[in-house]
Amino acid sequence: MTGASNARAAPPGCVVRAGRWTVHLCTPDEALHWVVDVEGRLLAGHVDGLHHRVGLDATVVARTPGLRGAARRLPPAEGDAVLAAAAGALRVVAEDLARGAVPLQLDHEAPPDAERARVADLLRRAADRAARPEDERAAFARVYRPVRVLPPDCAQALVAQLTEGCSYGRCSFCTLYAGVPFRIKPPAAFAAHLEDVAALLGQGAALRARLFLGDANALLAPMPSLLQALGALRARFPEAARGGVDAFVDVFSGRGRTADELRALRDAGLRRLTVGLESGHPPLLAWLRKPVVPEAVMGLVDRARRAGLDVGVTVLVGAGGREFDRAHVEDTAQVVRDMRLGPRDLVLLSPLVVDAASEYARRAARAGVRALAPDEQEAQADRLRAALSGGRWRVSRYDLERFVY
């Protein structure tokens, strides 16, 4: 990539492919491939054998190719270097494109000369943005609290934060919302937030195929606030609303929602709820300080499905290390199978990521709980997947290490 940034001409064979909402620049062997949106925002790239995803806040996650490729969230200095190199490549290609030295392929009807000028200008703007990641971070921070995680098929959803943080925040394994006080936005603040989201995304909002009502447990908001928020969200972003609205829920906030209330939320646009089971083994849940029993999660899932909602159920892979390994797999598989999920429901296998400063790490050290090695964690995921095979539901990987918004 460094060579591309210092080049005086585009790489041999480089082609620019332009659509209405994205532009790709790539070489025939895919050794170099960057994607920008219609606002000139860098979205993703493949270079030096690694795939990179770029968040709205200029965070970069790099991973090796393949379903199980290792992923790493780059420190700001390292991520900024990747973006700076991309900026150099974008500038070179923009100038070569403008003078006709790089071919332009269009996937829509448009005057070629006008499109060549438009796309060259877009690539210049993308280069300028990639060279100033601090501006992207500042713009993001004015609109969002950090978006720590989304279900895998919602990674490109348009997120609106009705709530911020987590109302519980004491699970030993989770540090996602550390330092973020929980609050529910009042209607006026939420309406202003939606306008800020629209301004941040600009025309790039067209790439968002569904909506996500955040943060960790938006269903804790009072029903009138929830219904109003869903209506405002769908009215402000009608195109993304066609894919429905997803949300996280925990049993503490979901316990009081009756099937009738959940049905009203479905009628207001809610599509799917994702709930953290984490494990079907009660002693492990207690050790994780997860204040729930499997039966409570099963009850919430049953009410959601009777209300016509799709369901996602998350399971921690590697939780409790070797000491809980067998019981965790056996009991979790049984609980999930007893939920009788349907073909639109998901079981999300999430590899445990332990923060060295977390309560989980301290408790594991005190108790002598031995963590699963990476290959053992993968083996546990395979055993869970095998134990859950044959059902109508879908099983998917849910990897925090790969996530960036």
Task: Write up what this structure looks like.
The structure is a single chain. The chain has two domains: 2-135, no CATH class; 143-402, Aldolase class I (TIM Barrel). 39% of the residues lie in helices and 20% in strands. It is α/β, with parallel strands linked by helices and 405 residues long. A hairpin with a 5-residue loop joins strand 5 and strand 6 (60-63). An eight-stranded mixed β-sheet has the order 7-6-5-4-3-2-1-8, with helices on one face. The chain has helices at residues 2-6, 76-98, 112-130, 133-141, 187-201, 223-236, 238-241, 251-254, 259-267, 282-287, 294-306, 325-338, 359-367, 374-387; strands at residues 15-18, 22-26, 32-37, 42-47, 50-54, 60-63, 71-73, 104-106, 158-161, 163-164, 183-184, 211-214, 245-249, 270-278, 310-317, 346-351, 394-397. The protein contains 14 helices and 17 strands.
- Please identify, by name, the CATH architecture of the largest domain: Alpha-Beta Barrel
CATH class term of the largest domain: Alpha Beta
**Structural class of the helix and strand makeup?**
alpha/beta
Query: Residue ranges: pLDDT <50 for 5 or more in a row?
Result: 1-7
Q: Give the spatial strand order of the biggest sheet.
A: 7-6-5-4-3-2-1-8
Distance N terminus to C terminus? 23 Å
How many structural domains are formed by the residues? 2
Predict the CATH topology of the largest domain: TIM Barrel
User: Shape, please?
Assistant: globular
In terms of DSSP E residues, the strand content is 15-25%
What is the helix content? 25-40%
